[in-house]
Specification:
The protein is an alpha+beta fold and 968 residues long. Among the domains are: 310 residues, glycosyl hydrolase (family 31) (Immunoglobulin-like, Sandwich); 133 residues, Sandwich (Immunoglobulin-like), CATH 2.60.40. 19% of the residues lie in helices and 27% in strands. The protein has 19 helices and 53 strands. The strands form nine sheets. Strands 6, 7, 8, 9, 10, 11, 14, 16, 19 and 20 form a ten-stranded antiparallel β-sheet that branches. A hairpin with a 4-residue loop joins strand 8 and strand 9. It catalyses: Hydrolysis of terminal, non-reducing (1->4)-linked alpha-D-glucose residues with release of alpha-D-glucose.
Length: 968
């Protein structure tokens, strides 16, 4: 939703007048930059950049104040411990405990804290009730596994050289080279350096010190260290709000370099290219660092490092044949600078290859320095290792990956019924309809407006007749109104976020005066969970699910449209320490609430979130927020979605049609054609936009949009299989070019085309007005076939022009894949459950292909006990076979019984060989059959540049059993 809505009748009138005036002017960029800090307006960001500039300007003469005390080093059970000493002057040193953990997965965790704060040996200003430690609980929310320490890691210390080396990883092929003074760490794979920590000397942990009200003449420490006025150490003002900073300066910073790597990806969320730009200026580059500070940014701009709604501090670096990565585990405000240059000679950087060094500088306002280093070497191995740490993508219910219809707002329950009826009347498939905040009784969550939604249960029962769902919005701000039971309970039980004085924090959001639930509090999670029970949230049924919006949190009258940093959460942690985690804690509570709304009724939850952090992928889906109905925003959606997938949260999408503004019919149509390749597919629109349900577009647009949605439904088996793979190994659901072709340097920066899972489907949606063709880049020398007419495209390392009139989606199939789909059109995905399958076998140049299909009930967790079908399809030696990839469990037999009649009704072999020309049948061999049976074969030869293909109809094979079809 947008960042502001009317709170009174006066505001309604004002908004109406503003809307009329806005129609008379050309729309432009509406983001209010003055509401959000630049680096120069953020004290610690400005200090961190100044510190880096000072070190850089001194060059080799710079003397780093950080050294690892050799005598403190201990290495036990895959973990190195020691103490880093920061020298302030000849008489003062700060002790910083260091822990380096070498994990069984090959990942390394480097953790640095501050001894004085650990011991609580500091004084807080302003009689603050905040905790004295650096925030040390982010791992509790983010990490779920993968922390088993390596049993084979071995240490080798060279006391004279001041270096400690640890070999680890697969076959001992990884090595961490730790220099003691100055402290730095180089990570090597097979003798070559891939990641460097503090190679540039930017390590800086602002230690605790008491505020000196006056300095002796010439004794301003801050000016000596940073050439920055000391005032921002102790308090900081922005936009009329003052941050009290009771703990004083406590930022952490570190440079992380990738020698030989010219591309880095990840660190969403930003409306920018997938391959991240430099941030220190230059042609086409940024001058601001990438910011990670979850914020409600109204009408965000493109090609910008400006912060948005979510943040995942996970970055991948890629070069030909190698991928590495880092996770910066810090939930405070964070900035990342990126600079690319030629590598310098360093005796530790053995075997550095390549022409470009990518150097990054990370700095956060507080918390520990907690960095995970991944040495790959493949994108897939990085995704898996990251997923083992933070959790894999939730396997959603089947309806969640189908089409969602939403706007702000469907205004009555009759409106919902009418939209539902119209979709059926025009034979357009959809699965979910959404309600924005206007369904509530005066913006009070967990209520329905009795005047406009008098019969919510009847409304949902009508949806259920077509196996459709309802999603309602529930935000974390609770209306502060007398006799509203939800807010009364939250106050009485002390479950709300508090201000710096320890009183319940009051701010403004949609309801006006509001309080915010504190989901860092376990008691608040329990209370929140109970609010969703059917007897509490009256009017909801089993087919209702939840949308968590505004959970950055968005506070209309707060600094940077969010909560003051010196607010207090459970455990007396300041909001500054946990800000980027805030949205994740809410969806965590909502996910738990939906697990069992009624005793014994356990189904997979569906939760959509706007704000997120590393680990949020375990609980639901995200979308890119309040985009605009423009061609540029359509184009920007793909690098945003792709970067989210790279960063471990692939269940992502953008508002189809654009949230703000009225798209032209061409733009709306192209956006639907593009949106069917978002993992999360939802249309959404602002309350002031014209209604734009697909059936209102008129012909030919309605028909073209309908065909696009039918394509999504046709390919749901392939999409669901891709979601399953993501849920077990962290693979992105839609994959960028470099992920599929990691050695093809021409494709590394391509972010306007994508592959769907492991299917070989290559899509490049049209994102340019008036276009009737597009250029698709093909990296390999395999044949690619047009999905619809089998036109052949081949030629490695080249772009190929594909016709794309308005009614055409550019979609190719890479040779060597078998794609499962369903060809019968239904009103919703649930009604397709028992429909037969079609297999598209796309032969490669060797005449081979393979693919997989994963099926379960699409609703419960029974798959965890074996209630699923997982098949491996293989075409080789002129035969197509189906093998079992599943593991039997207690519910396998029962599930297979329910699927016993589900069959394959058609097989299409694309690129069928010439020798099949005169064949009229194939031999079908099923498991347990004494002999085979014949099925008819139709062969179609090449026509012009269109490939040959063959069709087998009704082969009478079952989806859940082994079989073989012989084409020889």
């Amino acid at each position: 939703m947008a960042a502001y809505r009317p709170l009174s009748t006066r505001w309604n009138l004002y908004l109406a007048l503003l809307t009329i005036l806005s129609c008379l002017v050309v729309p432009g960029v509406m983001v209010k930059h003055e509401n959000f800090k630049t680096c120069s307006q953020s004290g610690f960001c400005k200090r961190s950049r100044a510190y880096a500039d000072s070190v850089t300007s001194q060059g080799s003469a710079a003397a780093s104040p950080y050294r690892l005390q050799s005598e403190t080093i201990k290495f036990v059970d895959g973990q190195l411990q020691g103490t880093i000493v920061k020298s302030i002057d000849a008489n003062e040193e700060v002790r910083l405990p260091l822990t380096v953990s070498f994990l069984e997965s090959g990942v390394v965790r480097v953790l640095v804290d501050e001894e004085k704060r650990i011991k609580g040996d500091i004084e807080l200003r302003h009689e603050s009730k905040a905790r004295k430690e650096r925030y040390n609980e982010v791992s509790k929310w983010v990490l779920v596994g993968g922390l088993e320490r390596s049993s084979s890691a071995a240490v080798n210390a060279d006391a004279e050289a001041g270096i400690t080396k640890i070999s680890y990883g697969p076959g001992g092929s990884f090595e961490a080279v730790i220099r003691h003074s100055p402290f730095e760490v180089h990570f090597q794979r097979d003798g070559e350096t891939h990641v460097q920590l503090n190679d540039q000397g930017f390590l800086n942990m602002e230690h605790w010190r008491a505020k000196r009200e006056q300095h002796a003449e010439g004794e301003n420490e801050s000016q000596v260290q940073t050439n920055e006025d000391e005032d921002t150490w102790w308090e900081e003002s922005f936009g009329g709000n003052t941050d009290s900073k009771p703990k004083g300066p406590e930022s952490v910073g570190l440079d992380i370099s990738f020698p030989g790597y010219s591309h880095v990806f990840g660190i969403p969320e930003h409306a920018d290219s997938m391959s991240l730009k430099e941030t220190r200026g230059g042609d086409g580059q940024h001058t601001e660092p990438y910011r990670l500070y979850n914020s409600d940014v109204f009408e965000y701009e493109l090609n910008s490092p400006m912060t948005l709604y979510g943040s995942i501090p996970f970055m991948q670096a890629h070069r030909k044949g190698s991928t590495v990565g880092v996770l910066w585990l810090n939930a405070a405000e964070t900035w990342v600078d990126i600079v690319k240059n030629k590598p310098s000679v360093n005796p530790l950087a053995l075997g550095v290859k390549g022409k470009t060094n990518t150097r990054t500088h990370w700095f956060s306002e507080g918390g520990q320095l907690d960095v995970f280093v991944f040495l790959g070497p493949t994108p897939q191995s990085i995704s898996k290792s990251y997923g083992e740490l933070t959790g894999f993508t939730q396997l959603p219910q089947n309806f969640a990956i189908a089409y969602h219809q939403c706007r702000w707002n469907y205004v009555t329950d009759e409106d919902v019924r009418d939209v539902d009826h119209k979709f059926d009347m025009y034979q357009i498939p959809y699965d979910v309809i959404w309600l924005d905040i206007e369904y509530t009784d005066q913006k009070k969550y967990f209520t329905f407006d009795p005047l406009t939604f008098p019969d919510p249960e009847g409304m949902q029962k009508q949806l259920d007749e077509s196996d459709r769902k309802l999603v309602v919005i529930i935000d974390p701000h609770i209306k502060n109104e007398a006799n509203y039971q939800v807010v009364d309970e939250m106050k009485d039980k002390q479950l709300a976020v508090k201000n710096k004085n320890g009183d319940i924090y009051e701010g403004w959001c949609w309801p006006g005066s509001s309080h915010w639930v504190d989901c860092f509090n376990p008691d608040a999670i329990t209370w929140w969970t109970n609010l969703f029970k059917y007897d509490k949230f009256k009017g909801t049924l089993a087919n209702s699910f939840v949308w968590n919006d505004m959970n950055e949190p968005s506070v209309f009258n707060g600094p940077e449209t969010t909560m003051p940093k010196d607010n207090l959460h459970h455990g007396d942690w300041e909001h500054r320490d946990v800000h980027n985690l805030n949205g994740m804690t809410l969806i965590n509570a909502t996910y738990n609430a939906l697990l069992e709304r009624k005793k014994g009724e356990i189904r997979r939850p569906f939760v959509l979130t706007r704000s997120y952090y590393a680990g949020s992928q375990r609980q639901g889906a995200m979308w890119t927020g309040d985009n605009q109905a423009s061609w540029d925003h359509l184009a920007a959606s793909f690098p945003m979605v792709l970067n989210n997938g790279i960063a471990g949260f692939p269940f992502a999408g953008a508002d189809v049609g654009g949230f703000f503004g009225n798209p032209s019919k061409e733009l709306l149509t192209r956006w639907y054609q593009a949106g069917v390749f978002y993992p999360f597919l939802r249309a959404h629109a602002h309350i002031d936009t014209r209604r734009r349900e697909p059936y209102l577009a008129g012909e030919p647009y309605m028909g073209i949009i309908t065909e696009a949605l039918r394509l999504r439904y046709q390919l749901l088996p392939a999409w669901y299989t891709a979601f399953h793979q993501a849920s077990i190994d962290g693979s992105p659901i839609v994959r960028p070019q470099y992920y599929i072709h990691p050695t093809d340097e021409q494709g590394f920066a391509i972010d306007d085309q994508l592959y769907v899972g492991s299917t070989g489907l290559l899509a490049k949606p049209v994102v340019t007005e008036g276009a009737t063709s597009i250029d698709i880049y093909i990296a390999d020398d395999e044949k690619y076939y047009d999905y619809f007419d089998y036109t052949i495209y081949e030629g490695a390392g080249k772009t190929h022009t594909v016709d794309a009139p308005l009614e055409k989606i550019p979609l190719l199939m890479q040779g060597g894949h078998i794609i499962p789909r369903k060809d019968r059109y239904r009103r919703s995905s649930g009604l397709m459950k028992w429909d037969p399958y079609t297999l598209i076998v796309v032969l490669d140049k060797k005449g081979e292909a393979e693919g997989t299909l994963y099926v379960d009930d699409g609703e419960t967790f029974d798959y965890q006990n074996g209630a699923y079908i997982h098949r491996q399809f293989t075409f080789a030696n002129s035969a197509l076979s189906s093998g079992d990839l599943g593991t039997k469990g207690s519910k396998t037999a029962q599930y297979l019984k329910t699927m016993a009649a589900v069959r394959v009704e058609k097989i299409i072999v694309v690129g069928a060989p010439e020798e099949w020309k005169d064949k009229t049948s194939v031999l079908v061999l099923e498991e347990g059959a004494q002999s085979g049976v014949k099925a008819g074969l139709e062969w179609h030869g090449k026509e012009g540049n269109k490939g040959s293909y063959a069709v087998v109809r009704n082969p009478s094979v079952l989806i859940g059993k082994p079989w073989k079809i012989d084409f020889s």
